[in-house]
Amino acid sequence: MPHLTLENVSLRYDGGAPVLSNVSLDIASGEFIVIVGRSGCGKTSLLNLAAGFLTPDSGRVLVDGRPVAGPGAERAVVFQNDALFPWLSTAENVAFAARLAGVAQAERRRQADRLLDIVGLAGLGDRPIWQLSGGQRQRVGLARALAADPAFLLMDEPLGALDAMTREGMQDLLLNAWHQSGAGTLLITHGVEEALYLATRIIVMAPAPGRIIRRLDVDFGRRRLAGESARSIKSSPTFVAAREDLLDSIFEREAA
Ligand SMILES: Nc1ncnc2c1ncn2[C@@H]1O[C@H](COP(=O)(O)OP(=O)(O)OP(=O)(O)O)[C@@H](O)[C@H]1O
């Protein structure tokens, strides 16, 4: 089973104050790990280390026990404002890597349509990108990331730019995409409810220096996948209590 491991990583930018100090984290396939924490605690820096965009000052980043030297196709990254190519159709954006790899047009289209179906955009393959809404574009970005059949999916606030209603729908879509792809997933969010709803494990970070202060296993997403409604889950006493507990951790408040 593929593992993406951060082993005692520490990081400073340009010799400044430590941004991450001795952080260890393991992401296995089938896991949905969500990182929460106050602004500036190093969440994005951690994701950039996992993606291979940054190199730690000490510690190691490993895929299946082998050190990574940079970005790799097995670790797909979805950004908040995904840069899609406006001159390509929706389907061609999804299949962009396949196009570079020389996959024939008909085959690219078949792959793209399958992925557009997974992200709820069936039938929109021929649309120009500029005719899609913000939420739809975000889904194209997700479909494009899934196109590489990555072992790991790394997402930095992927729903941050969306309005609340669209965001709730997209949470279900992320759950389904995660479930269907089986990719080990790492997601950063500022939404505490979003974290509880999506994660199999929540990692709470604290700043100065950025470090992990809590790991919490949850199963609300699995309840959703088993058919319980989002409303029923989010209004259940266990969910509400977990939300308060998590907020206490994030703001390092003493439980009353
Ligand atoms: N390229 C950079 N050069 C110098 N300092 C940086 C750089 N990127 C981030 N930092 C600093 O490192 C710290 C952690 O930043 P990071 O973006 O990882 O935190 P974050 O938890 O993702 O924040 P937010 O929730 O606000 O997005 C912050 O103090 C930030 O100012």
TrEMBL record:
Sorted keywords for this record are: ATP-binding, Cell inner membrane, Cell membrane, Membrane, Nucleotide-binding, Translocase, Transport
Query: Can you give the residue ranges of the ABC transporter domain?
Result: 4-232
Q: Name one Pfam family in it.
A: ABC_tran
| GO MF annotation, one | ATP binding
Family of the protein in this entry: Belongs to the ABC transporter superfamily.
Q: What is this protein called?
A: Taurine transport system ATP-binding protein
Q: Native species of this protein? A: Kaistia defluvii
